[in-house]
Design a protein that fits this description.
Two copies of one chain form a homodimer.
Chain A (H helix, E strand, L loop, with lengths): L12 H21 L5 H7 L4 H7 L3 H23 L5 H16 L5 H8 L6 H22 L9 H17 L2 H13 L17
The first copy, chain A, binds a DNA duplex (30 and 30 nucleotides) through α1, α2 and α3.
Chain lengths: 202, 202
DNA sequence: ACAATATATTGAGGCTACCTCGACTTAGCA
DNA sequence: TGCTAAGTCGAGGTAGCCTCAATATATTGT
């Protein structure tokens, strides 16, 4: 069996069919139950044994990664497009919103993602890298125009977007939107007059 | 047995002893393993049966809340003290840092806390309310001095602090500090010239 | 058409954890 | 000292993880 998560070499017809079914059920389950959804139930609903699931997707992360592939590609493409947007600040904000929205598609996803950065072998690691890289170009453009302080890195922005997505899982939508806005605004340079701990004027 | 989480009415001596042991072991376990630590192991290490644990603490949240009580009181007191700090901005930042630090004492704690706000019957609900209220006074003081935008509520700040604590669990410490700073800075009013999506000057 | 073989699938089985509840034990009082 | 309310116990049902030896089947070459 193909223990990699993408069907690279030609798979046997039955294997491919099962792979596809598993992926479809996983998507539903993750959306409904979050990233901790029961793998046994996913297998059951795909009409396949638990062993088969593990054959195709050796870890939960591998399965998650597979369900995420397309939307991540889309996000990277969106970043590319937004590079031509007239306002660098607006472009950055839009991408951040779109990304945060994707990351709260499944409950627990933000945690799985940010967590994957600790381990290069985690199947989600690459995905995070790609998204960070895509964001970096938008961030730099905004920086050139004075909207982003020097010490803020693309990794920081990625973490913030994840944090916002995480928060969104737990608070009302409307508050979630606000929190993301605060975080992105927090990347701006701090005006000199309030940087030091002295009391400001009126 | 006393199914409430605090020993209110006089408990039998053995019950009180077990209660205390459970609390002590829970603290260790949560610190070492996070808020999802095995309750059976906590009971085992306390030299008590699982049934006894459930007798004293009917839910994981109740046990968590009990282990948190003291440090939450301390945070509330700290907020009080900081109200007399000469710089409202510095006071706010300090309290936010202290709070975020407490909230990342146990892996998973920020999630348990923010999550508890969805359900008033969650034993952690009160704790969150208290912390939010404590932060509110600091926030208002900073707002009066122009450091905080109008639409940012105490609940927002509480959520941001939690988000920072969550992020801290997953990224290097040094990055974690920076993220919290970004979030708090994000509460500042947005300068007029960059509020609209127009490109700013040099 | 048919083996031969590489490729997949199966599911029981060993773990760990959650939580409940009826049977048992004991501290503390009169 | 014995009674009883208060507390403790832990087996047992449920569920999820993951593995691996046995079994099944798609494909390929003849």
């Amino acid at each position: 069996m193909n223990a990699a998560n993408t069907p690279q070499r030609r798979m046997r017809a039955d294997a491919r069919r099962n792979y596809e079914r598993l992926l479809a059920e996983a998507e539903v389950a993750f959306r409904e139950r979050g990233t901790e959804a029961s793998l046994e139930e996913i297998a059951r609903r795909a009409g396949v044994s638990i062993g088969t699931l593990y054959g195709h997707f050796p870890t939960r992360q591998a399965l998650l990664e597979a369900t995420l592939h397309e939307s991540i590609d889309r996000l990277v493409a969106t970043a590319e497009e937004l590079l031509t947007h007239p306002s660098p600040g607006e472009a950055l904000a839009r991408w951040a919103r779109a990304t945060a929205a994707h990351m709260s598609a499944y409950r627990g996803l933000a945690t799985s993602l940010l967590n994957s950065l600790k381990d290069e072998n985690n199947p989600l690691y690459r995905a995070c890298q790609q998204m960070t890289a895509a964001g970096e170009r938008l961030l730099d453009r905004a920086r050139r125009v004075g909207l982003v302080r020097t010490e803020a890195s693309a990794a920081d922005m990625f973490a913030l977007i994840n944090a916002a997505a995480w928060a969104r899982e737990q608070v009302p939508d409307e508050q979630g939107d606000r929190l993301l806005a605060f975080m992105i605004d927090g990347l701006r340079p701090v005006p000199a007059e309030i940087r030091s701990p002295a009391a400001p004027g009126p």
